[in-house]
Amino acid sequence: MSQEPVLVAGEWRNSDFTGTFQAENPATKEALEAVYPISSWADCDAALDAAAEAFEILRETSGDKIAEFLEAFATNIEARAEALVEMARLETALPVSPRLADVELPRTTGQLRQAAAAARSGNWKQPVIDSANNIRSCYSAIGPVCVFGPNNFPFAFNSAAGGDFAAAIAAGNPVIAKANSSHPGTTKLLAEAAFDASQSTGMPTGTIQLIYRTNHDIGGQMVTDSRVGATGYTGSRGAGLALKKAADGAGKPIYLELSSVNPVVILPGLLEAKCDALAEEFAGSCLMGVGQFCTNPGLVVLIKGNSTERFIQDVTERFEGAAVGTLLSGAVEKSLHKSHKILKAAGVEVCCGTGEGSGNGYCVANTLFRISGEAYLRDPETMQTEAFGNSSLIVVAKDLDEAAAILGTMEGNLTGSIYSNDSDADEAAYRKLAPILRQKVGRLLNDKMPTGVAVSPAMNHGGPYPATGHPGFTAVGIPGSLIRFAMLQSFDNVRPSRLPNILQDDYSGSAQRLIDGVWS
Amino acid sequence: MSQEPVLVAGEWRNSDFTGTFQAENPATKEALEAVYPISSWADCDAALDAAAEAFEILRETSGDKIAEFLEAFATNIEARAEALVEMARLETALPVSPRLADVELPRTTGQLRQAAAAARSGNWKQPVIDSANNIRSCYSAIGPVCVFGPNNFPFAFNSAAGGDFAAAIAAGNPVIAKANSSHPGTTKLLAEAAFDASQSTGMPTGTIQLIYRTNHDIGGQMVTDSRVGATGYTGSRGAGLALKKAADGAGKPIYLELSSVNPVVILPGLLEAKCDALAEEFAGSCLMGVGQFCTNPGLVVLIKGNSTERFIQDVTERFEGAAVGTLLSGAVEKSLHKSHKILKAAGVEVCCGTGEGSGNGYCVANTLFRISGEAYLRDPETMQTEAFGNSSLIVVAKDLDEAAAILGTMEGNLTGSIYSNDSDADEAAYRKLAPILRQKVGRLLNDKMPTGVAVSPAMNHGGPYPATGHPGFTAVGIPGSLIRFAMLQSFDNVRPSRLPNILQDDYSGSAQRLIDGVWS
Q1: Hey, is the C-beta of B2 within 8 angstroms of any chain A C-beta?
Q2: Which of A151, A172, B85, B236 sees the fewest Cβ atoms within 10 Å?
Q3: Shared-domain flag, residues B151 and B296
C-alpha cells in the first residue's frame, strides 16, 4: 500500500519512517484507507534545517507579505471546503452542520484573516522608542515553531491551519506542523492548501512543513532542538507534560493547553428562580460536541438549597433523554471510561451513564455524577480528574463556606463561571467566591456557560497551570496570541538604517508606537 | 551572640533556624559582627501564609495607594542613605563614590518611583474591551512573589528594594525577599525602610517580608508552593537552574537572570581607524566594577587584520597597568579562578593575569585571554564559560565566515555589540553578522559597550536561554518588567459593578485602553 508523503523543505516526499498508521472513522470504527508514516528523526532533522533556512528570510519579510500568504491560504481553504469537510467528517465523526462546514471552517479562515490583519498592522510588536537614550524595542519573530494540534478541532486548532499556526506565521515564524494522529488526512489537505498559498505568494519553501507522527522521544528532541524557537501544544496532559519537561530543560518556550474541568458555580437564589432553564442550559453546554471542548463544564458546584435535588434530577433526565454522540476516537472512549473508573473509585455517585453509549461507533452513555462537598474535600485532586467527553460531576456543598473551600482546592483552569440572581444573598456569595475563583482561571464568566470561545482581542484562552504552562498567555485572541511566538528585542544605539522598519524615525506604517512615553 | 531577626507577618522576630552565617568584608576578608539565621521551612511557611493573606488585600488595592507606598519607601531610602551606603560598602567593598552613594542608590530610588508611576497609570495592565462580545481583559497581579537577589547590586537589584521588588509590588503582589548571603545587613536595612513605608502608607502587614538564607531544598520548596504566584531570581547559573527545574515542574512562573558573556564584535575597518580608543573603551568597560556586571563584555570577536595584534597588545598593557579591584566575595574569587582553570585547560592563551591580584582582600589579577577562531570552534561551549569578574577572552577569527560561525555557536546572551565604521567592508560584514547575533541576544548594540543598563521602557535586560529563562521578558525597564509578575485575566459577560475599575465603562483613570479596536 502506498504511503502518504510528508511535506519537508518544500517537497511532498517519501518519509524516512519507522512505522505507519491509519486513521479510523470513529462512527464505524473502521480504518480509513490512507496510510501515513511515523517519521524518524531524519524527517524532523531535515524539516528543522529547512525551517531554519526559511526563518532567515521570513523574519525579514514584511507584515504585508505575510498577510498576503495568510489571506491566500484562507481563500484556498474556502475553495477546497467541500473536500476538507468531507475528510474531517470521516476522520472525526463531527457533524457537517452545524459544525464543520458552517462553524469551524469559517472560524478557521476568520482566524487566518485576523492574523493577517495583525501582521499588516504590526501593533502586536509593541514598538517602544526612547529618544533620549536612543534605545528602541519591539517584539520580533522567535524562530521556527513546532505545532502539535489536538484531536477535537480538526480545522480551528489544526497544526497546519489553526490558532497556533496563524499566530506563529503572523509573527514571522515558519511552522513545522505535527498532525494529530486522529485526523492526518484533514491535516494533509490543510497543509496542501497552506503550501500552495505559500508558493503563490512567494514565501520561502520551508514556511510550512508537515509530519504526521513521531514517537515520543523524537517529539521531545524536536522541542529542545537549537533550531527551534518555540512550541505550541494542545492535547492530553500526559503527553504535554513530557514535552514541557523536555522544552523547559532546554530553556525553549513551550505553550501548552493541557486540561481543564471549567468549574461552574450556580448560586441558590438563581437556581431557585430558574431551575429548569439552568438545567437545560447546562445540559446543552455539557453535551454539545459530545462534551469534547477544552471549555466543557466538567464540574458544577451547587450550594444545598430547595432546588438542588430538582436541578440534579432535571439534568439527569435530560442526559438520559439526549442522543449519545460519537466520540472522536477509540482513545477518547477509552480515556473517558478510565476517568469514570477513577471517579467512581473515589466515591462519586452515578446519577446516570458510565455504561456503553447508544450512539454510533465510539461512544459512552451521557454521564452525570454527584458528590457531597464534604466527600469532595477529602480528595479534591482526584475529584478534578478530567473526564473528556459527555460527562460532568455535580458537587453539592452544604453551605457557602464549604463552596469557598471547594474553590480553594481548584487547580488552574481555562474558565470559571458563576451564575447568580440579583438577591443580596447571591451577591454576597458572589463577593466571597469570585476572588477565589478569579486567580485560578484565565476567563471568569457571569451567568454564562464556558463553551464558546470568541476570537476576540479580549479573550483569554489560557489560565494557570495545569490548564496551560503559563498564566500570562492566551492561545485564542489576536494579537495577544502572537506574543507567544515572539522574543523581545532591544536596539541600543543601533544606526537608523539598520533598525527594523517599525522602529525607524521615518516609519510610515500604521502601528501604534510608544515614543518617549506618548502613544502615537 | 544574638541573631538578627527575620521579618515575617509584619514582625521582626526570631527565626526558626537551622544554622547561622555571617557576612564578610571582602576588602579585609574579616567576618562582620552580625549573625544571621539560616531559616527552616517553618519561617518560609509562616511567610507564605502571611503573603497569601496580604495578597487578598493587595490585589484589590488601588494603584494610587501602592504608588504611595513605593514613593514613601524611596524617601525612606534617601533618609537612611548614609547608613545604607556604609553597610553596603562594608559588605561588598564597592566604592562609595562613584558607585554606591551617587549611582546605585539614586538608581534604586528612581526605579521605585518609576514603578510607582506605572502602578498609578495602570497602563501596564493593557486593558482591552470588546463591547460586541462583552469580553474584557487585563493583566492583574499573579500572587506572592519570591525574590532572590544577586551579589553584585546591593541596592538596585536587592531582593527587598531592587528591580524585581519594585515590579512585583507595583503589579500588586506581596514580596518575600531572600537576601543575598553576601550582603544581609544591607538587605535588612532596606527591608526595614520598606516595612516602615508599608506601615505608614497602610499596606497589609505581609506586603514585604525578609528571610536571609535557606538551604537549597527549601528554596526549591518555596518556588513551587501553591501560595506562590511567581519567582524572580538573579544569580549564578547552577543555583538558578535548580530553582527553575523545581518551579517548572510545578508550573510556577520563574524569571531568571543566569549568566551572559555579552559578545562584542569589532570589525576591522573601525579597529584599524581607532585602535587605541577602542582598547581604552573596552578595557574601561571590562574592568569597571571589577567586571562584576551582568553585561560585562566577556568575549570579544576580532577578524584578523592589520590592527589585531596592536589592539590585543594595547588591552594587555592597560589590564596590566590598571589597579586591581576587590571582588564581591571569596566565592566570586574562587569561581573566577575556577573559570580561568577551565578556559586554560581548553587551550586559551594567557595575555595577562590569572594569578593573585595586587588589590585589597579578595582579588584576581586583571586577566585577558586569547584564542584563534579555529580553536574556539573546536569547543565553543567551554569557550563560553562565564568568568564573572575582571576577565575577558579575545577570539581572533581568520575571516568573516569564521566570525559568522563563531556567532552561530553563541548561547543566549543579555547583550551583543557590533562596532564598525562607515566603510563598505564593515557595513557588509555587519549585514552578515548582525542577523545571527540578533536572535541570540536581548539587546543589540552598535558602537557601544554593553555595560550600562538604562532604566528605559525600551530596555530589554533579558535574552534567550541561558541568559534568562524566557526571551519574552525584561527585568529592567518599566512597565515591561511588571508583566512578569502578572497573569492575564479575561472577564466574559461579567456584570459591570463586578469588573475591575480599569475595565469599567465609566473608568476615569488615565490608562490607555483598547476599546473595540481603538486605543483611547
Answers
A1: no
A2: B236
A3: no
